[in-house]
Amino acid sequence: MTGAMAQTAATSRRPGQLRLGVILEGAGTTAEGWRRPDIRPDASIDIQTYIAQARRAEAALLDFIFIADSLFITSDSAPHLLNRLEPLTMLSAVAGATSRIGLVATVSTMFSEPFTVARQLASLDLISQGRAAWNIVTSAVPAASLNHSRPGDFGATDRYVRAEEHVAVCRALWDTFEDDAFIYDKASGAYVDRSKVHSLNFKGDYFQVAGPMNIQSSKQGRPVLFQAGASTQGRDLAARYGDAIFAMTSNMDTAKAYADDVRSRAVGFGRRREDIIFMPRISPIIGTTEAEVDTLYREITRLAKIEDAVRNFGVFFDGYDFSRHRLDDPFPAIAVAAAPADVLAPRADPLKYIETTTPERFAREARRRGLTLREAALEFATPRTEFMGTPEAVADALERWFQAHAADGFIIRGGDFESFARNCIPILQARGLFRVDYEADTLRGNLGLPAAVNRYAAARERQPA
Q1: Residue 67 Cα distances to 24, 84, 90, 104, angstroms
Q2: H or E element: which one contains 224?
Q3: Diameter of the chain by CA atoms?
Q4: What is the pLDDT of residues 93-115, one digit of tens each?
Q5: How open is the CA angle 321-324-330, to the nearest 5 degrees?
Q6: Domains of the chain listed by start with CATH number
Q7: Who wins on pLDDT, 1 or 328?
């Protein structure tokens, strides 16, 4: 089946419906998440935990599960980062235990070869029958180079240029075989139509890849591409290649401005604005009453080590040492430089700062609300958002962002996914904002993305008869 044929029923998603995914991180998504009584401390290396979580997400009709990754740790790293399964290996196991939900793996372009990555992702795509996706990261942490036989400053100034070349090579390799290249004619002995097998012979600034790749595409054509770049170069990468954008903002105005900017850049690269979906990250907390939400929120923040929270809080305040103050006294009246006007008025230039919270604003709000230093530091570590509330209030917030074109959907991290699925999804379904069944059997189809067209087949069709 060609990529285009696989999409005939894939775009049946009714306009006006949200996309939803969830980040799975085994032993919690925060430094102290593993301490919750319902979390296995070794969950990040337990495949059965991931399979169970993926099945619950699939039962809730979510579009995908998302696996983050890192390539450098120290003994002081957050516990859930110290000991965890490699994403592609883990998702290959999850693929066999699920049938409809998408599988998003994080892979770095800085410390990998395009041929290997293209082959691994194509394998996951075939194993899952068209449900694979690649979260493209450029590994901004310099220390990761120490694990890959590279100098500490390797690629610091050109990692996005390298990433663009890496992704371009992978996309070309995924087009190695046209959809009908394999003919399997036992009578004649013709296994493949050689005219439909394409070498690459690529020579760039960073990579040299001859091709062809030794694996065909899945029925979704190629893996879906996720990207989360916030810088100018990152937004260009997202606009040129991204199918889905992982937005790191909790402010609706900045989210909309970011989406509008990337879509405009995409048009400049010859794409359509609607070919990209935007999905901010949220950490919902759901309660039947606001009082219950507040209790749940305080229970989550209670697990954090206050010493770590205060130290990280000080970094936000230009390295201020908050340890000189008592934790349970009111937030101290420290001198904080006023922020530039364009930070305090996000509509003036919301793209300059993805988040608009500033030290001056946070300090002013903490004193207005009568927070102690302890409460302020813990709240900074786990910010309150409009996605914490009753099921109706959270559904209202999701709908508000969607109707404002600030989001096409959301990626859930932390919080209580089980409660969200149980309490919020039925409300979204009743409002016609979320599916009541999967529309397709590929991730590209369920996300409502356009078909992935093989470049060589397209060129052949353009040739005169």
Answers
A1: 6, 11, 9, 6
A2: strand 224-227
A3: 85
A4: 999 999 999 999 999 999 999 99
A5: 100
A6: 3-287+388-459 (3.20.20.30), 305-381 (no CATH)
A7: 328
pLDDT of residue 287: 94
Mean pLDDT of 223-240: 92
| CA-CA-CA-CA torsion sign (396, 359, 262, 348) | positive
Residue 305: which residues within 8 A CB-CB, separation 6 or more?
Answer: 31, 32
Alpha helices in 12-113 (DSSP H): 47-59, 79-82, 87-95
Cβ–Cβ under 8 Å, residues 107 and 121: yes
Nearest to 26, CA basis, from 40, 44, 52, 4: 44
> What is the Cα gyration radius of the chain?
23
Rounded CA-CA distance 74/81 in Å is: 9
The length of the chain in residues reads 465
User: Could you read off the pLDDT of 381-397 as tens digits, one per residue?
Assistant: 777 889 999 999 999 99
343 closest CA partner among 352, 331, 330: 352
Element of type H or E holding 391: helix 391-403
pTM of the model: 0.85
3-state secondary structure of 66: strand
Reading the block at residue 268, the tokens are: 């400049």
Looking from the CA of 163 toward its CB, the CA atoms found within 13 Å total 31
Q: Round to whole Å and give the CA distance between 87 and 68.
A: 7
Distance, in Å, from the CA atom of 157 to the CA atom of 89, rounded to the nearest integer, reads 31
**DSSP secondary structure letter of residue 249:** -
Axis crossing angle, helix 252-268 with helix 232-241, rounded to the nearest 10? 60
The DSSP result for 258-294, as a single string, is HHHHHHHHHHHTT--GGG-EEEEEE--EE-SSHHHHH
User: How far does Cα 53 stand from its chain's mean position?
Assistant: 17
Six-digit token string for 191: 């296994």
Answer yes or no: are the C-beta atoms of 170 and 122 closer than 8 Å: no
What distance in Å separates the CA atoms of residue 245 and residue 229, rounded to the nearest whole number?
A: 8
Percentage helix, strand, coil for the chain under 3-state DSSP, each rounded to 5: 40, 15, 45
Give the relative orientation of helices 87-95 and 114-127 as an angle to the nearest 10 degrees. Answer: 20
How far apart are the C-alpha atoms of 345 and 182, rounded to whole Å? 58
